[in-house]
Amino acid sequence: MLMLRIVALALASATAQAQLTPGMIAGYHALTDVDSYLLNDLVQQKLESLLEDSNEKATCPSFAAGKAFYYQNSPFPAGGKPYFDSIPTYGNGGGEKLSAEYKEYIEWAGGGNGGKEFHKKWVNAVFNKGTVSKGNMTADFGATTFPNDPYTDGDCVGVEESVKKATSYVYNHIEALQLMQASIQSAKGGCIYQQDNSCETALNYWDASVAVYVGSLEGANGAPGGSGKSHYALANKRCRNFKNCGAERNEGNSRDQVSPINTQILAYFSAGQHAAFAGDWRLMEDFKKIISAKMAVPWIQGTLRYAHRLSAEPTRANDNKSSNTNPLDEFGIEVFDPALNPNPDNFANEYSELDKEVGEAAAFSLGSVPKLWACDKNAAQLVWSQLAPGQGRAGTSNPVNYQLVKLAFECNYKCLMTTCEEVGSLYDGKDKDGEIASGDSDDTIDGKVDIKNGARKCNDKLFGTDAVGLSKCKKPKKATKTKCEFLTGNPGVRNRDKPEYFKKTI
C-alpha cells in the first residue's frame, strides 16, 4: 500500500546532504523521515532552470530541454515512473482513495480518468503547443495564441510560464492533498501511533504532505525571503503583491514577513498531525478541507494580479481604486465600466498582451477556477473565458474584464472559505509611477505604494462574511445579493456552498 517514494537521485546536491527529517520544516516539527518528499522541490528547481531563458527566439532550445527533462530525464527509481508522471504518488492507481478536494478538479475537467489526469493533460498540451479540451478545461497553446507578444519578450515565454506555474503549484497542491488523504486512510485502518508507537504510517503521510507543501529550499525556519518552488513560496510572494503579509497584515514588498496564509496552513497542519497521532481521521478530514481552501487564496491573488495587467483598468478615469458598476447587467450579460472605454482601438496599448502574463494568468486560473466552479459553475465559466489562452480575451486585442473576474470570486468568497480581507487589495509592489517600493523600508506600510486602479478589496460585511470569524450565519446585503445573482447558486459540487461542508467535527 505504500506509495512510490520518489528520490531525486540525479541531483547531487540532494543526495549529498545529511538527513533533514525528523526535524523542522518551516517551523513545523516533522516526527518521521520524509526527506524524499521534502527534496522533490529540487526536481522542480531543475525543470525551471532549464526553462529559464525566456528571451530566446523561434527555436526555443530551453523549452525543448525542459520538455526532455519533464518526460524522460527527471529522476526516478528503476521500474518507477518519471517524477512528474507520478503525481499524485498516492491515488495514481491500485484502488487508492481520492480526496474530495482533488475530485473538485477532476469533475471540473470532465470527470473519469480524463479529469483525474487533468494536470498532465494541461502540461502535455503546453509542451506540444496544442489544444486541450477536457470538460471545462479548454485552452489553446498553438500558434494562434503563442507567440503573440508585441514587445518581443521571447517566443516561448508564454508556454514556459504555463508549464512552470502548473508543475510547481498545481502539482504541488494535488500531491499534498493526496498525501493527507493517504494519512486519513491509514488512520481509518486503525493505525494509531498513540496506542502503538511502531504504527507511524498515518503520521508519515501527514508529515510528507507538509514536506511537499513547503519543500527543502525554504529551510527549517521557512525564511520568507527564500527562493522555494512550492506552494508555500507562492503564498509569500502573493501576500507582498497584496500588502497583507505578517501578523499585522499590512506588509508589502518586505521579504521579512511570512504570509498569514502560510501561518494558518501550518497551524492547521500541526493540529492535523496531533489528530493523526491520535488516529482521529474525522478531525483530519476537516483539517484537510480547510488547508485545501486556504491554499486557494494565493491562486486567487495570482489570478487577480494577472487579470488586472491584462485588463483596461490602468486607463480608469481619475485613478479610481474601485468601481461601482456591476459587470453583469440584469440579464447576466457582460458589461464594461463606463469609466473605461470598451473600444480596444482607443486603449493605445494601455493593457498588456504580453505572453508571459497570459501564461501566468492561465496557470493561476488552472488552480483557482476549479475551486470557483465547485462553488458556482457560471462564475467559473465567466472567469475561464476571460483568462484561458485562446478563449478570446487574454493576450488578444480585447482587454480582460477585470471587474467581472474580481466580482466572480468575491461573490463566492464565503463558499471558498476566504474573505475580502484575506485576499486584500492589489498593490503589486509598485506605485502608479512604476517605482518599486524598497523592501528595506516602511514604504509599503505608510501608504507610498498605491492600490491599483479599480482593485480595492471588497467589504466583507456586504457579502455576509465576518472577516475575523468567517461567520456563515450572516446574509449578504440586498444590493450585493443582486450583483451576485448570476454568479452564485449553481455549485459544481453538491453542498459545496453549505456551511457544514468544511467543519463537521471541528
Order of helices and strands: HEEHHHHHHEEHHHHHHHHHHH
Using DSSP, what is the number of strands? 4
* Biggest beta sheet attributes: 2 strands, antiparallel
Helix content: 40-55%
Secondary-structure content class: mainly alpha
Please give the alpha-carbon distance between the first and last residues: 29 Å
Global geometry? globular
Keywords:
mainly alpha; 3% strand; disordered N terminus; 43% helix; 506 residues; two-stranded antiparallel sheet
Write the layout of secondary structure elements.
Elements: H1 12-16, E1 23-25, E2 28-30, H2 35-38, H3 41-50, H4 61-73, H5 100-108, H6 112-116, H7 118-127, E3 131-134, E4 137-140, H8 157-188, H9 201-214, H10 231-241, H11 260-278, H12 281-309, H13 355-375, H14 377-387, H15 402-410, H16 413-416, H17 420-423, H18 478-483
Antiparallel strand pairs: 1-2, 3-4
Characterise the protein shown here.
The longest helix is centred in the middle third of the chain and has 32 residues, at 157-188. A hairpin with a 2-residue loop joins strand 3 (131-134) and strand 4. The chain has helices at 12-16, 35-38, 41-50, 61-73, 100-108, 112-116, 118-127, 157-188, 201-214, 231-241, 260-278, 281-309, 355-375, 377-387, 402-410, 413-416, 420-423, 478-483, and strands at 23-25, 28-30, 131-134, 137-140. It has 506 residues and is mostly helical. The model is unreliable at 1-16 (pLDDT under 50). Strands 1-2 form a two-stranded antiparallel ribbon.
Give the structure's gist in a few sentences.
This protein has helices at 12-16, 35-38, 41-50, 61-73, 100-108, 112-116, 118-127, 157-188, 201-214, 231-241, 260-278, 281-309, 355-375, 377-387, 402-410, 413-416, 420-423, 478-483; strands at 23-25, 28-30, 131-134, 137-140. The protein is mainly alpha-helical.
